[in-house]
From TrEMBL:
Taxonomy, superkingdom: Bacteria
Protein name per Swiss-Prot or TrEMBL: Protein argonaute
InterPro entries: Ago_mid, Ago_N_thermus, Ago_PAZ, PAZ_dom, Piwi, RNaseH-like_sf, RNaseH_sf
Piwi domain ranges (all copies): 507-671
Classification lineage: Bacteria, Thermotogati, Deinococcota, Deinococci, Thermales
């Protein structure tokens, strides 16, 4: 057992009434599509058909399930996807009993429950509804805006066949004027806008100088005439041209009218308007509102009287971190010595007009290496990025002298210039740590974090874990990037103690799913890294996937591990979906493990005692045989391994946090700069 003791928590979920016999026997509908779609298109099209059919209808397998009688559904029609038009026809096949104890059938019932919740929320009067969120009370008001209080909801079905409702109080800031009117008051451009005539939202790129009466659209109509033909200008002024983009495809500008758009406001947008507007809730108040909203939902939606759900929780052992000696946080390693250090050469590039290493930075680095028993050489680069090829030559010579990473002291830079400089240094295999001036010795948190980042980018291991863990190799997989330029990448902790942190080369991809072959290629690289260091393969591997695991994404990798005789566990780690936890007695603490149903558990990795309520991670054990508590123990301890944060810890375990940082940085900088960078140099932290 890895826990210190048992306690109990309230979840922000509530048990409601059991499903009735008809709800346990939904209608089944066969779907015929013409022309027949390709394999990758089937499921998105079925989901679209379910929405077109109407009622409480969802995709189930290769057909549909519905709680609405077939006679009220739209049984035939057309829809479009990816430039292709499809005709669909639905054939009712009678009712099919579903067993909530079966995970697949319970998933279908839960999808129906969410659709039921959406439909019944839309029927409510006097409230603002967005998807699964409902806002019903005004919290604050200002010139042209108001804040509504409400909650984000979820509804699903338990294995006992009852509805479970999740409630998370939230606020929604609504603008009550068009973008044109908002800007006329002198406000800056908001980042997002929505249509005044429906709920679709856009990224706002810029205002245009074009005349909307003259700007042509495909089809021959002008921008103004197009919206007039749709009846959208009745009672509204069109205003100027505003260029927007779909958030899923932000590189494709679309012309719109500022008079037909409404700003989507954030608290930051209202900072000057209402400095006293505070929207965070102390946990006691959040819990009270959660109960109140659950009762209101149960009453108004006919779902029964809610009963708060309690769950057992366990406090996990505190991780023990090691530098040269035991430390409580990574910053301590700068004083007692790094876990693993070797002869290192660092360079300084000053773009602020000053010369040489600041004395307190030089002193801190020399102390860290002296305590680590390793030698350090410090250089200064006498060059400037504006010198073009001469700057590249200076970097090449620095690399030949053994420089492993570069600290850049600079006035604040635009992100584009910052990324260009990072990419330029990476071409020569030199990761950089950029630190803005002015820099004062008393700002210890700031410059110690920068030094830790610099040492990590140079390939040194700041800290490791002390203890026994099930997996000898932990690998985090993430898919992400910037705009529509996306990558699948991985980072790993080699050895049960995370004695080496490495990254593996990301590969370009179309979306959030990492191709099976890429997953295995990334994992194979980490296995090879382990073998180089340990001269054998690991006995067990912990695979951590950010978000839900797409179907069969890891099938090839798991087959390969089984062939090699390597045990494995695959865990889906979700930053959202874990809801909230509240103490029944006492206080919450870091490392709180809450086992749930279906190999699912919550893990509160970081809890700071401040205003608001912490959000645990939601983890699902997708494959493997390690007990959940042992998995929770290792994953919690891995959150303490992130070396570039000296004083605080991330929510995510280090391999996953590193993979997330990796794919985002590669999305910004591109992949072509990485061929000279050593895999132990975490250039992206």
């Amino acid at each position: 057992m890895n826990h210190l003791g048992k306690t109990e928590v309230f979840l922000n979920r509530f048990a409601l009434r059991p499903l009735n016999p008809e709800e346990l026997r939904p209608w089944r509908l066969e779907v015929v599509l013409d022309p027949p779609p390709g394999r990758e298109e089937v499921y998105p099209l079925l989901a679209q058909v379910a929405r077109r059919a109407g009622g409480v209808t969802v995709r189930m397998g290769d057909g549909l399930a519905s709680w609405s009688p077939p006679e009220v559904l739209v049984l035939e029609g057309t829809l479009a996807r990816m430039g292709q038009t499809y005709a669909y026809r639905l054939y009712p096949k009678g009712r099919r009993p579903l067993d909530p104890k079966d995970p697949g059938e319970r998933s279908a019932l839960s999808s129906l429950a969410r659709r039921l919740l959406q439909e019944r929320l839309q029927r409510l009067e006097g409230v603002w509804v967005e998807g699964l969120a409902v806002y019903r009370r005004e919290h604050a008001r200002g010139p042209g805006w108001r804040v509504l209080g409400g909650a984000v909801l979820d509804l699903w079905v338990s294995d006992s066949g009852a509805f479970l409702l999740e409630v998370d109080p939230a606020y929604r800031i609504l603008c009550e004027m068009s973008l044109e009117a908002w800007l006329a008051q002198g406000h800056p451009l908001p980042k997002r806008v929505r249509n005044a005539y429906d709920r679709r939202t856009w990224e706002l790129l810029r205002l245009g100088e074009e005349d909307p009466k003259e700007l042509p659209l495909p089809g021959g109509l002008s921008l103004l005439d197009y919206h007039a033909s749709k009846g959208r200008l009745q009672g509204r002024e069109g205003g100027r041209v505003a260029w927007v983009a779909d958030p899923k495809d932000p590189r494709k500008p679309i012309p719109h009218l500022a008079g037909l758009l409404v700003p989507v406001l954030t608290l930051e947008d209202l900072h000057e308007e209402e400095e006293g507007l505070v929207l965070s809730l102390p946990w006691e108040e959040r819990r009270r509102r959660t109960r109140e909203i659950a009762s209101w939902i149960g009453r108004h939606l006919g779902l029964g009287t809610p009963e708060a759900v309690r769950a057992p929780a366990y406090r996990l052992e505190t991780p023990r971190l090691m530098g040269r000696k035991a430390v409580s946080k990574p910053a301590d390693a700068l004083r007692v010595g790094l876990y693993r250090a070797q002869e290192t050469v660092l360079a300084l590039l000053r773009l602020d007009g000053a010369q040489g290493w600041p004395e307190f930075l030089r002193r801190a680095l020399l102390q860290a290496f002296g305590a680590s028993g390793a030698s350090l050489r410090l250089h200064t680069l006498h060059a400037h990025p504006s010198q073009g090829l001469a700057f590249r030559e200076a970097l090449r010579k620095a690399k030949e002298k053994g420089v492993q990473a570069v600290l850049v002291l600079t006035p604040p830079m635009a992100w584009e210039d910052r990324n260009r400089l990072k990419a330029l240094l990476l071409r020569e295999g030199l990761p950089s740590q950029i630190l803005n001036v002015p820099l004062r010795e008393e700002e210890r948190h700031r410059w110690e974090n920068a030094l830790l980042g610099l040492l990590t980018k140079a390939g040194l291991q700041v800290v490791a874990l002390s203890g026994a863990y099930p997996a000898e190799l932990a690998v985090g997989f993430d898919a992400g990037g910037r705009e529509s330029f996306r990558f699948g990448g991985a980072a790993c902790a080699v050895g049960g103690d995370g004695g080496h942190l490495l990254w593996t080369l990301p590969e370009a991809q179309a979306g959030e799913r990492i191709p099976q072959e890429v997953v295995w290629d990334l994992l194979e690289e980490t296995l090879w890294a382990f073998r180089r260091k340990a001269r054998r393969l690991p006995s067990r591997v912990l695979l951590l996937r950010d978000g839900r695991v797409p179907q069969d994404e890891f099938a090839l990798a798991l087959e390969a591990l089984a062939r090699e005789g390597i045990a494995y566990d695959l865990v889906s780690v979700r930053k959202s979906g874990g809801g909230r936890v509240y103490p029944v007695q006492g206080r919450l603490a870091d490392g709180l493990y809450v086992p749930l149903e279906d190999k699912t558990f919550l893990l509160l990795t970081v809890h700071r005692d401040f205003r608001g309520t912490p959000r645990p991670l939601k983890l699902v054990h997708e494959a493997g045989d390690t007990p959940l508590e042992a998995l929770a123990h290792q994953i919690f301890h891995l959150t303490r391994l992130y070396p570039a944060s000296g004083f605080a810890f991330p929510r995510l375990p280090a391999p996953l946090h590193l993979a997330d940082r990796l794919v985002k940085e590669v999305g910004r900088l591109g992949i072509r700069h990485l061929k000279e960078v050593d895999r132990e140099k975490l250039f992206f932290v």
